[in-house]
């Protein structure tokens, strides 16, 4: 019975996390990841564009949830309150992805080439939030400012989270937004 | 008569900006930069650690001015107001460095390897601001949050500046800080 695409993708991600941790990112090849996952290297490249992307699986889902939540927020809500609502909508993704995120973070910290990609991903997410806010009528520079403040505030919440419960992360997101307002 | 170290440094910076623009960053060597500046390659490496650093000359001065201004601000001032004051103190550096900054930006936009270094420089500046705020008694995570919001707000001001007058940049810094507060 052929394994499903989603299953192969999950196994490739797990295999990459294991191999990058065991041998380091630089010493691991996509062929080794595919072998460990029990698929061909061609299958690897059907799922991921390069050796780095396998680590950032899930970013597209996160962006979609955030952007949709920004679009769906009541029109009268101020921009940072819109972002607080969007990050709260993404809490289930962070709860589900916590174990992968922690293992990934260890590998990123040890690998300069991945820090660059992680930064690019974070900048792309900020851009997506700014674009979604601009679509609500906010001038583009103000939307980018709001996106950056929102990302800083959410990073602050995520940094204090113990990774256990969704309700704890929701509380921290609200607290961080309030703290950002209180710093001024 | 031997040329002074400061003069050689200035000429190396100008030569690098010219050559990177003319031939691209990747195709230019430190030997070519030194030759154009009329010094030896050994002199180049006495001033700059690598091919990228020549573009980021002045970052140390900026960090020093910002960190000193944070330390000197009245103790009762809220963190973001402290940062607004610090960026205002650095306005003369931005006025003096505007022409170099514009030419540098064109080169950075065209060169992925430099975007990475530019990001690292910006992250290091955020860290320095956070450390300076933490030294005033702010908890470290809150200091980092304030540093990120302050940098976002200052970037917003710099993005609208026409590069002409110091008083205009001072006005934009104050306006951006007010706008950041109004977003939430």
TrEMBL record, chains A, B:
The keyword Transcription regulation applies. GO terms for molecular function: DNA-binding transcription factor activity; transcription cis-regulatory region binding. Keywords: DNA-binding, Transcription, Transcription regulation. Residues 6-66 form the HTH tetR-type domain. Residues 29-48 bind DNA. PROSITE patterns: HTH_TETR_2. SUPFAM superfamilies: Homeodomain-like. Gene3D superfamilies: Tetracycline Repressor, domain 2 (1.10.357.10). Transmembrane segments: none annotated. This is Regulatory protein TetR.
């Amino acid at each position: 019975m052929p394994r499903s695409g989603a299953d192969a993708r999950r196994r490739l991600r797990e295999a990459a996390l294991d191999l990058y941790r065991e041998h380091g990112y630089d010493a691991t090849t996509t062929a080794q990841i595919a072998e460990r996952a029990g698929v061909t290297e061609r299958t690897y490249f059907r799922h991921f564009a390069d050796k780095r992307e396998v680590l950032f699986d899930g970013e597209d889902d996160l962006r979609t949830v955030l952007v949709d939540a920004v679009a769906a927020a009541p029109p009268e809500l101020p921009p940072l309150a819109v972002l607080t609502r969007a990050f709260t909508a993404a809490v289930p993704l962070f709860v589900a992805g916590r174990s992968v995120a922690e293992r990934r973070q260890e590998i990123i910290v040890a690998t300069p080439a991945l820090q660059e990609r992680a930064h690019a991903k974070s900048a792309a997410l900020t851009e997506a939030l700014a674009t979604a806010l601009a679509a609500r009528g906010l001038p583009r520079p103000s939307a980018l400012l709001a996106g950056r403040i929102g990302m800083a505030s959410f990073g602050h919440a995520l940094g204090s989270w113990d990774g256990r419960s969704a309700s704890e992360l929701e509380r921290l997101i609200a607290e961080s937004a309030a703290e950002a307002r209180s710093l001024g």
